[in-house]
Specification:
heterodimer, A: about 350 residues, mainly alpha, 14 helices, about 0% strand, B: about 550 residues, alpha+beta, Beta Polymerase, domain 2, Cytochrome-c3 Hydrogenase, chain B, three-stranded antiparallel beta sheet, globular
């Protein structure tokens, strides 16, 4: 009983929970910056630590020591807590990912944790909107409305495309979806994987969809009024969001932590494959970011309702048709097998 | 026939004005002057516009003659710079506006109002242009009887820029962009009226980077002023020195050796490539295409290296001087230039392909910020902005200087008038500049690269125009026979182009603002150079230059 509790605390705080996810976030931040720089003919971080790997940590430490300025007329409590709340929500969502084969709470998850996780990130997005809305700054207000417009548009296709994987594997549990992929779903149903990556790009506000914080138009968008600790947490939750998004994509379409187990403890290899796949997804997203100019909010709204939404519907329909064929059984047999 | 065009223009005016035309003369081909009676300038300009509908105004130069203020309206009509001169009494400096005839004059009249105190009756919006809002009234810094510190309250009252009224109407929001903003690389202030994400109107306030260069130029000798005008703008510094040196050479009747003229072409075109690549990269940044920015700026480095090889400096070339250039070109740097130009040509055609075919770039630039040809002519825009709106003008071809007369080059003109066209004009001009540089290096005349020129210049005036990277640059220099100029007037391309920003941005989205602004390639350091912001800094600045001068004095051979 006590050892169970200790294990749980260890898992939540150290591995694969808070500390591990935090280090992974910082590492991915460095990875993003480095490959982006290389794609753009630049050096990227080089100074702090080997290959500049400690640069994100140094940045956050610096931000934490900066003066925390709260402008007059901001929305009080909401302004103060949204950075931490959004960070906590993304962290909690990431806890449900089967990082070392199990989720952080040391169980196999439950049927439907996919839905829970998708709802949690919706809520986290809304806190980001609130952070801008409470800032009493025209740039922040513009950024906040933009984040809401963009996210209202892209949340629906994201959920529909995620449902494709659930249909294919016959489960709503993240771990089940990952475990049942003997062949990665990205190969079996590219019609769902490719749009999912694009929609993810929009969800994560990466180019060409980095409209809510387009610096040449509205300074830092909803982040404009944040400074010091609050800004550090906003940045951290944005970085965590990228890791979570990449992990979700790898879990739904690339088989998550499952891969060939070569030797030794499975937990190590599960984590290894998990991190590797996350990095692959991040690499692809950075590639898209490097070759695109930023779109305009009206382009995004138009592209969403006239392009991404129909594509998501079609993709789901295609999946429904293809499931029996791919799984070698008719729908009736599949239902009876339950 | 040298007489035909200039005389025809003058005769047009003589017929119309009759006794109103006091005097007229042609100083050299493509330079004509008419002195008209006070009040006749409106009639003169409308007569010119009737006869030559594509007449544009370059600027208005004001001069303090002691008892009177002289106004020179520099007009470009039918291949001639025609200067319409009119004088107003200094005790009551009032004259009629020409903005209803030629809307492009609006900012020039405001400039003269701000710095000389001439009131233009009928001007729709006669406010300060360059001086700060808290500048005391009745102080006109460019008048001869004004000196820094005299009669000025040293402590300025708190700035009254003020807060815009945020509750204009229910859904209209005022958003201030600047003086400090990530999209602006120089201090500037725009007040945008927005309805949601749509721009309804914009108000521009320039003048944050005054350095009082026109006033300072009057207290420096001609050869020192070369270095002063070089500092008007970091990017198009070569254009400024070429322009100023040409004006002084015209006054002093200096024959510049052909080799120097050819070298001026090389450095000016290197400067143009550098400026255009810089802008194209920034355009990428403004529409969120950071990779393009990084790539283009990397290629721009090779141009800076070439400038360094040729002149010794990367940015501030310090290459031109009155009577020629300061260094000859060595065979090895000539070879390097030819080699790098070949590389750069490949890169340029790659960028051309990117700008032509990249879908996201196309979404952000095509059909955005339209300026049609009639508006472009009416607002008298210059350079790439005019050429992108179908106005086929290029000083290098229409009013040739240096060695451009014989050099073969095309003038790219686009009819779309949108952001995309303004960027494409620049991409094509980079290619043309590469050709020009290769031609100039391969056809370099032999001989000296400079002639020595006396410090003292004869009495006279000259108007020099140069196609700077951003468009027509104009220097008007008047000499009173001493080593110091009586007046140096600079009209930079940005001042001519910024007036069109309002027309371009209305009705488009907030997200288009940076793209439209950058497609003008605004340079506010150039535009704001004219006046002193406050007495203290003004005095200090001149002192510094005097120190500099005494140093230079000792080092002179």
């Amino acid at each position: 009983m006590t050892s169970d509790l200790l294990l749980l605390i260890f898992r939540v705080l150290i591995f694969p929970g808070f500390l591990f996810l935090l280090s992974l976030t910082l590492f991915c931040d460095w990875f993003e910056r480095k490959i982006m720089a290389r794609m753009q003919n630049r050096m990227g971080p080089t100074y702090t630590g080997p290959f500049g790997i400690l640069q994100p940590l140094a940045d956050y430490v610096k931000l934490l020591t900066k003066e925390d300025i709260t402008p007059r007329r901001v929305g009080g409590v909401i302004f103060a807590v949204t950075p931490v709340v959004s960070f906590a929500l993304f962290m909690l969502s990431a806890f449900y990912l089967p990082i070392d084969g199990l989720n952080v709470f040391h169980n196999v998850g439950f049927e439907g944790d996919l839905i829970l996780v998708l709802s949690l990130i919706t809520l986290a997005h809304f806190t980001l909107f609130l952070s801008g809305w409470s800032s009493a700054n025209p740039y922040s207000a513009l950024g906040a409305t933009r984040i809401l417009v963009q996210f209202l548009g892209y949340d629906i296709p994201l959920i529909m495309l995620a449902a494709g994987s659930a249909l294919m594997t016959g489960s709503l549990s993240l771990r089940e979806i990952a475990a049942k992929q003997s062949v990665p779903l990205a190969i079996l149903m590219p019609w769902a994987f490719v749009p999912f990556l694009l929609v993810l790009q929009a969800e994560l506000e990466e180019d060409p969809f980095d409209i809510p914080h387009a610096e040449t138009e509205i300074v830092a968008g909803y982040e404009t009024e944040f400074a010091g600790r609050k800004y550090a947490f906003i940045r951290l939750s944005k970085d965590l969001q990228v890791v979570f998004g990449a992990a979700l994509a790898s879990n739904l379409f690339l088989g998550g932590p499952y891969g060939p187990l070569l030797f030794g403890p499975p937990a190590f290899w599960f984590t290894f494959w998990f991190v590797l796949k996350v990095l692959i997804v991040i690499f692809v997203m950075e590639l898209i970011e490097a070759i695109c100019a930023r779109l305009r909010i009206d382009h995004v709204v138009k592209a969403n309702w006239s392009l991404m939404f129909p594509v998501a519907v079609l993709s789901l329909a295609l999946t429904v048709i293809a499931v029996p064929w791919l799984r070698g059984a008719t729908w009736i047999e599949l239902l009876e097998a339950r | 026939m040298a007489s035909s065009r200039e005389d025809e223009t003058i005769n047009t005016l003589r017929e119309r004005l009759g006794q109103g035309l006091l005097n007229s003369w042609v100083s050299r081909p493509r330079r004509a002057y008419v002195h008209v009676r006070q009040g006749s300038h409106r009639e003169a300009i409308s007569a010119l516009l009737n006869r030559f509908p594509e007449t544009t105004i370059s600027t208005i130069t004001a001069l303090d003659l002691g008892g009177e203020i002289e106004l020179n309206y520099h007009l470009w009509c039918d291949g001639t710079v025609l200067t319409v001169r009119v004088t107003v009494p200094k005790s009551n400096p009032v004259t009629e506006t020409v903005t209803d005839i030629i809307p492009g004059a609006a900012l020039y009249e405001r400039e003269v109002f701000d710095l000389f105190g001439v009131r233009f009756t009928g001007h729709p919006d006669l406010r300060r242009l360059l001086l700060s809002d808290d500048w005391p009234s009745g102080q006109y810094p460019l008048r001869k009887d004004w000196s820094p510190g005299a009669g000025l309250p040293l402590k300025a009252p708190p700035s009254r820029i003020g807060n815009p009224d945020m509750r204009d109407a229910s859904s209209i929001v005022n958003v201030v962009v600047g003086p400090q903003h990530p999209a602006l690389h120089e201090p500037e202030r725009f007040l945008f009226k927005l309805d949601g994400e749509t721009v309804l109107d914009v108000e521009t306030r320039i003048g944050y980077v005054h350095r009082g260069i026109e006033k300072a130029a009057e207290s420096l000798m001609f050869f020192q002023n070369v270095h002063l005008v070089e500092r008007i703008c970091g990017i198009c510094n070569v254009a400024h020195t070429v322009c100023f040196c040409q004006a002084v050479e015209e006054i002093g009747r200096v024959e510049v050796p052909p080799r120097a003229e050819c070298l001026r072409v090389i450095i000016a075109e290197l400067n143009r490539i550098h400026s255009h690549l810089l802008l194209l990269g920034v355009a990428g940044l403004e529409v969120g295409f950071e990779t393009l920015f990084q790539y283009i700026w990397r290629d721009r480095e090779t141009v800076l290296d070439l400038v360094e090889g040729l002149t010794g400096n990367r940015i501030m070339a310090e290459y031109n001087t009155i009577g020629g250039v300061r260094r000859d070109i060595s065979p090895s740097i000539a070879q390097t230039i030819l080699r790098e130009m070949r590389n750069l040509r490949k890169r340029t055609s790659f960028y051309r392909e990117v700008f032509e075919s990249d879908p996201t770039l196309e979404l952000r630039t095509k059909g955005i910020g339209r300026l049609r040809r009639p508006e472009a002519l009416k607002l008298c825009v210059v350079g790439p902005v005019a050429r992108a709106s179908g106005v086929d003008s290029d000083i290098r071809r229409d009013d040739p200087y240096a060695a451009y007369e014989d050099a073969p080059f095309n003038v790219p003109v686009y009819d779309e008038g949108d952001v995309w066209a303004r960027l494409m004009v620049r991409v094509d001009e980079v290619a043309e500049s590469i050709n020009l540089i290769e031609y100039a290096v391969e056809n370099m005349p032999s001989g000296p690269f400079r002639v020595r020129v006396a410090r003292r210049q004869p009495e006279g005036e000259a108007l020099s125009r140069v196609e700077a990277p951003r468009g027509e640059l104009l220097h008007y220099v008047k000499s009173n026979g001493s080593a110091y100029p009586e007046r140096v007037k600079v009209r930079t391309p940005t001042l001519a182009n910024i007036i069109s920003f309002r027309e371009m941005v209305k009705g488009y989205y907030v997200a288009d603002i940076p793209a439209i602004l950058v497609s003008l390639d605004p340079c506010f350091a150039c535009t704001d150079r004219v006046a002193l912001v406050d007495a203290d800094s003004g005095r200090k600045w001149i002192c510094n230059l005097r120190d500099l001068r005494s140093d230079r004095w000792r080092k002179q051979p």
